[in-house]
Design brief:
Mean pLDDT: 93
Shape: elongated
Low-confidence stretches: none
Radius of gyration: 22 Å
Number of helices: 0
Helix content: under 10%
Number of strands: 8
């Protein structure tokens, strides 16, 4: 029999994001997320809260061409720390398994837009987890059983329907 109880909790955090142009045409975007969540009644951490996360992305925007527009190439690094702020075991086992370790991922993207009879069609390719890193995310309930997805290659074509038939 599971019994759930309401508690007073305090959640504090910050999400930071900044984008700047390093040199024309190279830009850099950095993001940082931090959350601290405490069960005030028990003076302990709350379970299933995200770990600290840092993302850096560098994007190179190519000059506009006669046929190709909005052409870019980007490289993104993501670092997620091990979640160390988890509830203690004083009230019994709180989680099935200890939080997984920290991990770092590298993602890459390339895209461009072509005009087909006044219709801008965007083509892009993205590679997530470029180095096929084995990792488990603390917030994924399947972490008890399996690793996260390995390398993932995405081919995308975007056609705006509003321009068709104009």
């Amino acid at each position: 029999l599971l019994v759930y109880q309401q508690n007073d909790a305090l959640l504090q955090g910050v999400d930071f994001s900044s984008r700047m142009t390093i040199i024309q045409p190279l830009s850099w975007e950095v993001k940082y997320s931090l959350l601290r969540a405490k069960n005030k009644d028990k003076n302990d951490w709350l379970i299933r809260m995200p770990a600290d996360r840092l993302q850096n992305e560098f994007t190179w925007n190519f000059k506009e061409g006669k046929k190709f527009t909005a052409t870019y190439m980007s490289l993104e690094g993501i670092y997620v720390q091990k979640q160390t702020r988890v509830p203690g075991e004083q009230d019994g086992k709180q989680d099935y398994k200890a939080p997984p370790g920290a991990y770092a991922l590298l993602n890459a993207d390339f895209g461009t837009t072509l005009m087909f009879q006044k219709i801008p069609v965007s083509f892009s390719i993205g590679i997530r987890n470029l180095f096929n890193t084995t990792y488990r995310d603390y917030l994924n309930s399947l972490r008890y059983f399996t690793d996260e997805t390995g390398r993932n290659i995405q081919l995308r074509i975007k056609v705006p329907f509003k321009n068709i038939g104009d």
